[in-house]
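lol ok so funny story. i was supposed to be doing the assay writeup but got distracted and ended up predicting the structure for this chain instead. priorities right. anyway since i did it might as well share w the group, maybe its usefull for someone
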Amino acid sequence: MELLKQLCELFGPSGNETEVKEFILSYVRKHSSSWKVAPEVLHGEEFQDCIILAFGKPRTAIFAHMDTVGFTVRYQDQLVAIGGPGAKSGYHLVGHDTLGPIACTLEVNKENQLFYNFGRAIDTGTNLVYQCDFKETQDHVTSCYLDNRLGVYSALKVAETLENGAIVFSTWEEHGGGSVPYLARYIFENWHIRQALISDITWITDGVHPGQGAVISMRDRNIPRKTFIDKIVALAKQSGVDYQLEVEGNGSSDGREIQQSPYPIDWCFIGAAEENVHTPSETVHKHDIQSMVALYEYLMKHL
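and the output, tada:
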């Protein structure tokens, strides 16, 4: 879990993912020589802060968003949410401005307005995130930002054995997206990829339980193509890996932008489920992490 811990500690709210990008690039440079296939690494100004890893002859792409929820300093001591963070008075927030490092607390008034409590004024426009307190037990991992650093972690573990495929690290997902359209265009025009798996984190519900395997989402606010979902479920059954099925009417992911793009790319959301979504103490069962990685490895070989 050391890699996951390092990922969760990275600063990377929507629109400010550079630190995460540089960590992934450094990790790939250091470790890819020992992977089954060394990928082509695509990044640069034309990709903004996104990264594409291309292995062999890609048929299917894994999308994993790098960004997190957080807060932006407005004026005086006011805060504005980035995405949909959980907000309770007393949450510890961290960041950095022109005067140095910041470690402050979140304050929420009766009107649900957000403020910071700190010994000095913080520069307007500064981004703040939850302070990471990574905890591991025999069965569970608890930390802020398992959504979606766990999705990134899973993709990097799958990269170790991936022979043919693409891994796409995207940005802005928590705050409405924006990078997936040009990323989808690139993978379609360069490799004619028409299949995508969304490596992201969902939530525990009355039908999804911790410790029972990774979740295959049959729909959320968006509805993927049924024939593709049926294909994924059939392969999951063949794999022997524990999995669960999810049906929801809310929530979204990079799959939404793929579906709304002008490219005929099928998609399916597959990920571990967590408790305490978008809080400093998101919790995931380790068996579900293992199932997520194993299921992705199988699907990328057989799709």
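The longest strand covers residues 100-108. Residues 2-68+135-302 form a domain with the Aminopeptidase fold (CATH 3.40.630.10).
back to the writeup now i swear
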